[in-house]
Amino acid sequence: MVDANKKTKLIEVGRTGIFLVALCAIIALLLSLLNIVTRDRISENEERNLRDAVVALFGSENIEYVLLEVTPEAVDAIYKVTEGETARGYCVRVSPEGFGGKIDILVGVDNSSSVIGVRIISHNETPRLGSRIENNHFLSQFIAITSKSEKNIDVISGSTVSSRAVTEGVRTALSALDEYLLGGVVIE
Which of 46, 57, 93, 135 qualifies as a FRET site for 29, CA 20 to 30 Å off? Predict the structure, then answer.
């Protein structure tokens, strides 16, 4: 009798285990299919967000940008920005670590290596606190600074970690661009 109960429980546990494994496999398959279906849409949205940020930084719909192949390790990407045949500057994409994770930042730099604007592409900072890094009053402090500037940037009260991360990201972007330009690339 005891052996029959153990056998019955063992069979029941086995069935439950098989059911759970099958359920997990089905869910994994559905998530994979969802990823395949939405991958192109996500990529298009990311590209549109990048373009919108570059256009906002350089103030023209006729802006074109090209990803440069040689990128210093400290940054995610450097884009050369042109308008027709005229070189307008660069955009440097960095992702410093904020309070809530990575902060995706695009720094616009003109041909004299001076910041023309900063755009926060995405972040996971605390709503109404860390998210204040998107405030124009905070971001406007970076305009006209260069890698050699010693201007102090005022942090945002209540979101010190986030605002320091943005400040560090902008400084990293400027240093990386200087490193890239000193590596033999001349702004045309």
Answer: 46
Tens digit of pLDDT for each residue in 43-71?
899 889 999 999 999 988 899 999 988 77
Q: State which H helix or E strand residue 41 sits in.
A: helix 2-58
**Pairwise CA distance, residues 93 & 74, whole Å:** 10
Residue 186 has pLDDT above 50, yes or no: no
Residue 142, both tokens: 């970076």
DSSP track, 58-83:
HT-TTEEEEE-S---TTSSEEEEEEE
Tokens 């309070």 appear where? 99
Which ranges of 65-145 does DSSP label H, i.e. alpha helix?
136-139
**Residue 37 to residues 29, 41, 46, Cα–Cα distance (Å):** 12, 8, 16
Unique residue bearing structure tokens 């910041």: 115
